[in-house]
Amino acid sequence: MKILYIHGFNSAGYGEKVNHLRDAFKPRNVISPTLHYDPEEAISQLEFLTDAIKEKDNLFIFGTSLGGFYALYLTEKFKVPSVLINPSIDPYTSLQKQVGPQKNFKTEEEYIFTQGHLEKLKNYYVKDLKSLKDLVYVYLDEKDELLDSKETAKYFEGFHVVVYPDGNHRFTHMKELIEDFKKILEERWKK
């Protein structure tokens, strides 16, 4: 089994969540690229990786925040299961305040995030969400200060949704998520 981890806005393919995944599933099984800030560039890279990996191995996609939005799109396109962590359900709205000069928190890359980038995100919106019910697992920290966890839980009503008390947007419950995910894996392999 391979895991493709997709980071959030202004982040990178390394950090605490990736480390937890590598500890739990071995480093060679976790692919975690640092993506371009332009949605088209990021999606192009992710589509290539998803298509290549799924041909050779069982693949799960993990996505955080904006990465969760991307993961949902990839699940629809490739029918590959995904785990969404504090996912953005409408980044073209939630990232509106980010239009302008940016500096990546991890890589320190400086760039201009534009209205055009927001418009591009609309191309990856999943319209038939219900058809993905058996492929999507959602994990939320209740006290996410950037994205409304109640609104997200309602959006994914009927899906496998776990809401942890407290926490924040960075998501403080990776150990618990991994334990739950391992149970999901056991169930999936039984089928």
How would you describe what is shown here?
This protein is of the alpha/beta class. It is 40% helix and 19% strand. The longest helix has 18 residues. The radius of gyration is 16 Å and the shape is globular.
Topology, pairings included?
Blueprint: E1 2-6, H1 16-25, E2 30-31, H2 39-56, E3 59-64, H3 66-78, E4 82-85, H4 91-94, E5 100-103, E6 110-113, H5 115-121, E7 136-141, H6 149-155, E8 160-164, H7 174-190
In short:
With 191 residues, this protein is an alpha/beta fold. The chain has seven helices and eight strands; from the N terminus they run βαβαβαβαββαβαβα.
Number of strands: 8
Percent strand: 15-25%
Mean pLDDT: 94
The assigned CATH architecture is 3-Layer(aba) Sandwich
**What percent of residues adopt helix (DSSP H or I)?**
25-40%
From the 3D structure, determine the CATH topology.
Rossmann fold
Structural domains: how many: 1
**Could you list the spans in which at least 5 consecutive residues all have pLDDT below 50?**
none
The CATH class: Alpha Beta
* Rg for CA atoms: 16 Å
Apparent shape:
globular
Q: Which strand order does the major sheet show? A: 2-1-3-4-7-8
CATH 4th-level superfamily = Alpha/Beta hydrolase fold, catalytic domain
The number of helical elements comes to 7
